[in-house]
Design goal:
The structure holds 2 protein chains of 2 kinds. Chain A is mainly β. In chain A, 0% of the residues lie in helices and 56% in strands. Chain A is built from no helices and 11 strands. In chain A, the strands form 2 sheets. In chain A, strands 2, 4, 5, 9, 10 and 11 form a 6-stranded mixed sheet that branches. A 5-stranded antiparallel sheet of chain A has the order 1-3-8-7-6, with no helix packed on it. Chain B is mostly beta strands. Chain B is 0% helix and 50% strand. In chain B, β4 and β5 form a beta hairpin. Classes of the chains: A mainly beta, B mainly beta. At the A-B interface, β5, β9 and β10 of A face β5, β9 and β10 of B.
């Protein structure tokens, strides 16, 4: 059974501050690591798909890194804005076996 | 370009009943997966359909079944509903299994079993 862990479970950040959180996944038989941003009552929004060890991806103020050898990925948000408030999910896999998700990090940006 | 669309948005069923949820994949996508998200958990993989066949199934009983139509749309059927089946059901679509393909999700169908 694959285990994907995310930490912290929730996070309060002051507007303008930068923040980061972690996703841990099995380091063997790596396929791909997906990051999603999920706002209430909306569909999960795909942020990144990461496949190579050492990958770094960026989308505006959000970036992510990947270490497949030790089994972790970091998501960074620079200069947090209220619209960044959401649950951030990471998921391992993506082939025919589907995605294995963590429980998410619930981010609240305080004005 | 419409994304992944699901229907209905919300529904309430009684224990023992059956339910059908529907999904239209993103344009150009032919692979559809279904996930169940219970409260406080991440989404759990139910099964995946490609070329109208079930490719893989997660740890869900046979009460959960599905179908994919020639136009790639899909249905999730749940028989003999239990209270524990109350959850958000998400549909996801992608191109066929490919290294690093983005997987797109719909907004989900909220099922309440009473």
């Amino acid at each position: 059974i694959l285990n994907v862990e995310q930490s912290p479970q929730s996070l309060h950040v002051q507007e303008g501050d930068s923040t980061n959180f972690t996703c841990s996944f099995p380091s063997s038989n790596f396929y791909a690591l997906h990051w999603y941003r999920w706002e209430t009552a909306k569909s999960p929004e795909a942020l990144f798909v990461m496949t190579l060890n050492g990958d770094e991806k960026k989308k505006g103020r959000i970036s992510a890194t990947l270490n497949t050898k030790e089994g972790y990925s970091y998501l960074y948000i620079k200069g947090s804005q209220p619209e960044d408030s959401a649950t951030y999910l990471c998921a391992f896999g993506g082939g025919a076996d589907g995605l294995t998700f963590g429980k998410g990090t619930h981010l609240i940006i305080q004005p | 370009d419409a994304g992944v669309t699901q229907s209905p948005t919300h529904l309430i069923k009684t224990r023992g009943q059956q339910v059908t949820l529907r999904c239209s994949p993103k344009s150009g996508h032919d692979t559809v997966s279904w996930y169940q998200q219970a409260l406080g958990q991440g989404p759990q993989f139910i099964f995946q359909y490609y070329e109208e066949e079930e490719r893989q199934r997660g740890n869900f009983p046979d009460r959960f079944s599905g179908h994919q139509f020639p136009n790639y749309s899909s249905e999730l059927n749940v028989n003999a509903l239990l209270l524990g089946d109350s959850a958000l059901y998400l549909c996801a679509s992608s191109l066929p299994q490919g290294f690093g393909n983005t997987i797109y999700f719909g907004e989900g169908s909220w099922l309440t079993v009473v």
